[in-house]
Task: inverse folding
């Protein structure tokens, strides 16, 4: 039987029809190989965005994307290999804390990560603020690092899930990003291709998240779990708050420094500590290291208090070429040329934040990129001094900005000032976990 033309596949989805597995393969594998041009895939993506994909199509699309490139084989490494993914937020420094915590408890962490576009840098940009740190490892180097050190966080290599990389680039410029089936296929295909056995996905909810409402977040989480299970992976989701930044630091080197302080037992955001602690505990349960969450949390606490997690971080940084001395002296991390304090505008309580605007303020300071080829200032960003519910007086420091020029700090200060809300009476903080 002759395969349908690509034009026919676009027509089917345009008119609300469904595809067969062979048709999905034809489209995805043809696009990855270059046989299907960008303009045809763009048309199909818009049709899929408008008319959706059914449950089977979403699984078939994800599977085809996995098969578009190499699947990393971690089977030679003993134990359950885990990965933790976040749908993204502001001051979402959790990976930098969770990875060494879990590795210190004897569970291998194998994570392929992405770069940030918009608010601040992604996990890779944060790691690259560490002098010498290499995120561009080959698949074989990635496997060796997980095996020998117990943790590796690397960039997606060209041979891993190339269909996703090409499709996401199109979605980003054709207004087809906010589609649950396409989001699920993108996330799960990368995770399956990356070789992890168990995957914990942190779905952020709130003003600084991609999913603004709990209903949207629950729908996404349910599909992530369903499709992950259909492809043979143990996938779990947690829904966490992003109505205010998770950590106190927003920016690349600033977030690395906060992660180091947390693992060193020094001051850090309580929210960041608790989310990282419980996420790490869930990963230990998924890996079979503990049967109950309370037991796993006790293991995490021991890794923190004993210094084992900090030592795991030191080994991890060194294994990927980073200077391990930053773990003992975070002042070796890049620093911005200028700092400026931002002061409270009135007496009262911090009623909350427009978290996305806090992230934008850090970007304006130089911590993020507006286009994929824009450079990031690794030392730029901001450090909050207050959380929702805190009592403040007019003139009280609410944040410190870090940037290269006065103009950048001016723009960041204006944006941050708009992002902080005040109230006359006490305010309750939002919960850290919803589901």
Result:
């Amino acid at each position: 039987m002759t395969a349908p033309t690509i034009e026919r596949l676009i027509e089917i989805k345009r008119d609300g029809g469904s595809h067969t597995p062979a048709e999905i393969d034809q489209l995805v594998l043809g696009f990855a190989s270059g046989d299907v041009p960008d303009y045809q895939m763009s048309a199909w993506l818009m049709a899929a965005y408008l008319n959706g994909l059914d449950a089977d199509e979403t699984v078939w699309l994800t599977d085809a994307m996995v098969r578009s490139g190499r699947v990393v084989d971690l089977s030679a490494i003993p134990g359950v290999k885990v990965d933790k993914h976040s749908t993204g937020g502001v001051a979402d420094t959790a990976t930098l804390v969770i990875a060494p915590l879990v590795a210190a408890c004897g569970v291998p962490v194998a994570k392929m990560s992405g770069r940030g576009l918009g608010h601040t840098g992604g996990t890779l940009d944060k790691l690259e603020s560490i002098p010498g740190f290499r995120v561009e490892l080959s698949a074989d180097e990635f496997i060796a690092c997980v095996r020998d050190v117990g943790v590796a966080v690397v960039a997606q290599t060209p041979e891993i899930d190339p269909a996703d990389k090409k499709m996401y680039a199109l979605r980003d410029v054709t207004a087809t990003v906010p589609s649950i089936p396409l989001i699920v296929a993108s996330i799960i295909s990368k995770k399956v291709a990356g070789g992890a056995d168990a995957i914990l996905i942190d779905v952020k909810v709130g003003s600084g998240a991609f999913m603004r409402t709990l209903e949207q977040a629950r729908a996404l989480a349910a599909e992530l779990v369903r499709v992950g299970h259909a492809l043979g992976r143990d996938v779990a989701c947690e829904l966490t708050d992003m109505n205010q930044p998770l950590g106190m630091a927003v920016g690349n080197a600033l977030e690395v420094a906060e992660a180091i302080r947390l693992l060193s037992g020094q001051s850090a955001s309580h929210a960041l500590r608790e989310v990282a602690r419980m996420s790490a505990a869930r990963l230990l349960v998924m890996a079979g290291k503990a049967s109950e969450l309370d037991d796993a949390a006790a293991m995490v606490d021991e890794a923190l208090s004993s210094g084992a997690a900090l030592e795991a971080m030191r080994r991890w940084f060194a294994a990927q070429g980073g200077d391990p001395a930053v773990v003992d002296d975070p002042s070796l991390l890049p620093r911005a040329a200028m700092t400026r304090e931002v002061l409270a505008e009135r007496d009262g309580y911090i009623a909350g934040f427009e978290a996305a605007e806090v992230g934008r303020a850090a970007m304006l300071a130089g911590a993020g990129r507006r286009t994929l080829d824009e450079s990031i200032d690794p030392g730029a960003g901001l450090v909050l001094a207050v959380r929702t519910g805190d009592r403040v007086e007019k003139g009280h420091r609410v944040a410190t900005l870090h940037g290269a020029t006065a103009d950048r700090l001016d723009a960041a200060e204006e944006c941050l000032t708009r992002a902080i809300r005040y109230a006359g009476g006490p305010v309750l903080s939002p919960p850290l976990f919803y589901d």
